[in-house]
Amino acid sequence: MQQSKIFSNSVAATVEVIIVGIGYFVLYRYLLRHLGIELLGVWALIISSTSFALIANFGISTSIVKFVATYYAKNEFDKLKKLIFTAILFVAVSYSAVSGIIFIFGIYAIPFFIDDKYISIASQILPFSLISLIINVMGITVGGCLDGIQKNYIKSYIVSLTSILLLILSLLLTPKYGLKGLVFAQIIQSLTMLLLT
C-alpha cells in the first residue's frame, strides 16, 4: 500500500514537472511574440514585486503538513478541520494586510522602475496580481493538507490541470485584453486550484 502511494506520487510529480515546464515554455514564447519584450518585462517586474508578500507566510504553508499528518493518523478530524480553517484564515488575512502595504508603496515606486508609457498598465495590473497571489497561497496551504495525508498525487494533477488552464486562458484573453488578460488568467488559475484542492 505504502509503495503504491509512493509510486503514484512519483508518477504524478513527474507528470506535473513535464506539463508545467512545457506549458510555461509555450506561454513565454507566445507572450514574447504577442506582447513584446517590454510588456513582458513589466509583467515580470510586477510579479516579482508582489512576491514580497511571501513574508506574510510565516512558514504556515509548510508547517501545516506535520500537524495534518498527526491529526489524520489519530482520526482527529474535528481538530483537522479547525487546523485547516485557521491556517487558511491566517494566510488570507496576513497576505491581504501585507499586499495592501505593497500596493500603496508599489503605486509610488512604479514610476522609478518602469518607463512612463507603461506606468498606467503596471498600476492597473498590480492589485490583480496581488489578489492572484493571495488566492494562490491559500491554495498552496490547502495543498499542504494533501501532502500531510500522502495524497501528493492529487495536488500534482491539480497543478498540472491548472497550468494547462492558464495556458489556454492566456491564449484566449491576451489578444483581446493584453497584459490584463494574462493577469485575469492567473486569477482564474489560482481560484480553480484553490477550489479543486
Summarize the topology.
Blueprint: H1 2-34, H2 37-50, H3 60-73, H4 77-113, H5 119-148, H6 152-177, H7 179-196
Helix pairs in contact: 1-6, 2-5, 3-4, 3-5, 4-5, 5-7, 6-7
Short overview:
The chain is an all-alpha fold and about 200 residues long. It has helices at about 1-35, 35-50, 60-75, 75-115, 120-150, 150-175, 180-195.
- Mean of the pLDDT scores? 86
**pLDDT < 50 stretches:** none
SSE topology string: HHHHHHH
Secondary structure: number of strands = 0
State the major sheet.
none
Helical amount among residues, as a percent range? over 70%
- Distance linking N and C termini: 23 Å
Supply Rg. 18 Å
Q: What is the molecular shape?
A: flat
Q: How many H/I helical runs?
A: 7
Strand content: under 5%
Query: Which structural class do you get from the secondary structure elements?
Result: mainly alpha
Structural key phrases:
87% helix; mainly alpha; single chain; 197 residues; 7 helices
Explain what you see:
The protein contains seven helices and no strands. With 197 residues, it is an all-alpha fold. Helix 3 (60-73) runs antiparallel to helix 4. It is flat, with a radius of gyration of 18 Å.
